[in-house]
Amino acid sequence: MPDRIEQAKRALRADLRERRQNRSESARADAALGVQAQLDALIERLGATSLSCFLSTTTEPGTHEFVEAAVARGLRVLLPISRDDGLLDWVVATPGGAIAEGLFGLPEPVGEVLGPIAVNDVDLLVIPAAAVDHGGMRLGWGRGYFDKTIGSMERCPPVYAVVFDSEYVDDVPRDVHDQPVSGIVTPTQTITFASANR
Question: Which structural domain, as residue segments, surrounds residue 120?
């Protein structure tokens, strides 16, 4: 049974990855602006003063501009660093902060490293996803970092996954360790799920 689920996840991820790689530069730039506007509105609505956010790769909905603007406005933004043991360390984002290639070739911040529990103090988690279904189940990229983080938090704040509009789908394959999200942010909309209990 788990093999069937894993095969379905792999196939869906491959399809989504290919679609992302086929987006034009202008479509990606427009998406980044849309994501920034949606995240700014979400922060305002939630009254968040501290949050975690990921640094997007070139094919993901862009978050770099959002992070820069949030830091400039005085918000405390924690950026993740992948560890070999499957946990995430955190760095506080700074204006014009340096970025290096981290584990798995992902963009990660350079700075003073805080341990995994640093994220327990944030008001909002903004995380990556390959897709999210209408019930709020998130399909990640298969390494489990964010599922582990969400699942281990004593008091988990709202968790919003950033995806392209076409990645909000009817259903995603799920396993027992997969964690749902409170909502999604796309370049054109923010959706909070009725079932969100975070």
Answer: 2-192
